[in-house]
Fold this protein.
Amino acid sequence: MNTNWTVKSIRDSVNGGSVTALSIVDEALRRIEEKDGEIGAFLEVFATDARKAAKEVDARHAKGEVDLPLAGVPIALKDNMLVMGHIASAGSKMLADYRASYTATVVTRLQAAGAIIIGRTNMDEFAFGSSTESSAFHVTKNPRDTSKVPGGTSGGSAAAVAAGMIPAALGSDTGGSIRQPSSLCGVVGMKPTYGRVSRYGLIADGSSLDQIGPIATTVEDVAIVLSIIEGKDSHDATSVVLDDLTSENVSSDLAGVRIGVPKEYFIDGMDEDVAARIHEAIETLKKGGAEIVNMSLPLAPYALPAFYIIQPAEASSNLARFDGMRYGNRGEGAIEESYRSARGAGLGAEAKRRIMLGTFILSAGYYDAFYKKAIAVRAAMKMEFDAALKKVDVIVGPVSPIAAWGIGEKMDDPVSMYLADVFTVSANILGIPGISVPCGTAHGLPVGLQILGKSFDDNRVLQVAAAFEALHNAS
């Protein structure tokens, strides 16, 4: 097939009539069949439904719909997004047999735009983890080096795109779960502003933190997908009417752009080669016409401990419904025994750890000591970041302090795993947009540059990302 494997090129080719949506889907299915046995990015491929949807897109084209914004584009979904009639397990045995009774808003918007939902991708159980190793089903491998993790929790989505199986996928980002695997796999991944994209039909992790976003191989492709899934949804009270819709034609002009570089984003223990790639990326932005502003965010180091209080607290509440009675596979025995059996067998170690931690945090006598303090830190951080983002247009730094690590290397050390999120959790705590863009390699493995912006200034984040991408690719 001559079509370049990007969202834009596939869309333009199908709309232009040079290829059919069905031929694109057949190519995607061929690539998945050829590559996924080694990578393990997918939990299920919707081959029959995908071919049917492709024929419907071709029929729409034949009737004169020649400007569908995602015509024939195969897109995968992280396994925590609902498609009516399909399993959505959130990577957990607890929901291994759960079939969705409705479809997520992001999915209906993709389908209306002509996209083809190709399957569901592997993830850390209930989006708890940083490596896609806590999935109840299998471990996903990094396509750049199959002895390494792909990152998490959207590791299946990032790996599928990085391996060239599909041009784009959706992930969810609660503390870096789009940006971190995108960085480790060498693709582009964006967490939009909280409220920009509906969470209706997303199995909740931390409700004040979660956001759905796109993963693709180019900034332009990320912008195209985001432009389709964003916007107010009556099913999600946290979604907003947007004054500034995402443009797929991302400007790459850096003239007059002020870029902040916090000293707190270069920490002891950070891999020296990773730090070097980030400094080189900053120099590239400077040469491209941006003004670099060195700055300090004294509260930034408190983001990680605050996150690991807020997120488990919200997650323990959200997961209370998965008890084998309301949702999940039922255990044997009377009610207490059934609860213990269902949750004991249905939930993995990390899910149990977060539920117990969150329940403890919210319990009498500890709520004030932990949760209320974390919320106070969140409020103080918001003031600090808001002040900083009045002086600069975006803030840049690393996505991860290290490149991809070996499979199994951190599974027995959860605190070490949590530290992989040290630079990403701020965006979720504050609800601001963030993107990871490839900026080179360390030890032969991809490194991502993180770009953060003001709330609902997603277009500026995309602009700087597109400018860096163009400059980096030209160098």
About this structure: Residues 7-229 form a domain with the Amidase signature (AS) enzymes fold (CATH 3.90.1300.10). The chain has 15 helices and eleven strands. The mean pLDDT is 95.
